[in-house]
Amino acid sequence: KMQETQPNIYFAGSIRGGRSDAQLYSQLVKHLQTHGPVLTEHVGDEQLLHQEQNMTEKAIHDRDMQWLHQADILIAEVTVASLGVGYEIARALDRGIKVVCLYRPSEGQRLSAMIAGCDEIANHSYATVEEGCAIIDQVFAML
Predict the structure, then answer these.
(1) Predicted confidence (pLDDT) per residue in 28-58, tens digit
(2) Cβ contacts of residue 77 below 8 Å, gap of 6+?
(3) C-alpha span between 87 and 90 (Å, rounded)
(4) pLDDT in tens, 66-80
(5) Which residues contact 42 (CB under 8 A, 6 or more apart)?
(6) pLDDT at 2
(7) CA distance 117 to 15
(8) H/E segment holding residue 115
(9) Would you say 77 and 28 are in contact if contact means Cβ atoms under 8 Å apart?
(10) 9 versus 18: which is more confidently predicted?
(11) pTM of the entire predicted model
């Protein structure tokens, strides 16, 4: 059943936990924008840490929580482990927001059991950006 209006999308990805996937986040955000507004499009911005350095921790937290409260769905890229992303996922689940996690399996790196073992989270592993985008399309087709 397609919604009349496009869903508000909250994209979560590692920021201080490591920015090695920033370019991938950017590609996923661009694709997500074909399905609806991405409230956190800045997560894909290579310059993000520089932009946020003039904000207090509280200002960043409160801004992000305000966005989360407006979201219909949270899509998280969880390959790079991040306390912030785990926190956002937990807060989203508490609010009854649908949570989808994308994860690229690799040698010697396993997804946290708190994410992998949670029945309320739709976890999807993928290898390429194209595969990630295809999973996103499937998720939104079923909303």
Answers:
(1) 999 999 999 999 998 888 787 777 889 999 9
(2) 11, 12, 13, 14, 21, 24, 25, 28, 101, 102, 103, 132
(3) 5
(4) 999 999 999 999 999
(5) 48, 51
(6) 53
(7) 24
(8) helix 113-116
(9) yes
(10) 9
(11) 0.93
What does the DSSP assignment read for 23-68?
HHHHHHHHHHTTTS-BTTGGGG-TTHHHHHTTS-HHHHHHHHHHHH
Closest to 36 measured CA to CA, from 72, 13, 9: 9
Three-state secondary-structure class, residue 5: coil
Give mean pLDDT, residues 89-105.
98
One-letter amino acid for residue 116 of the chain: A
At 129, the amino acid letter reads V
Name 108's Cβ contacts closer than 8 Å, sequence gap at least 6: none
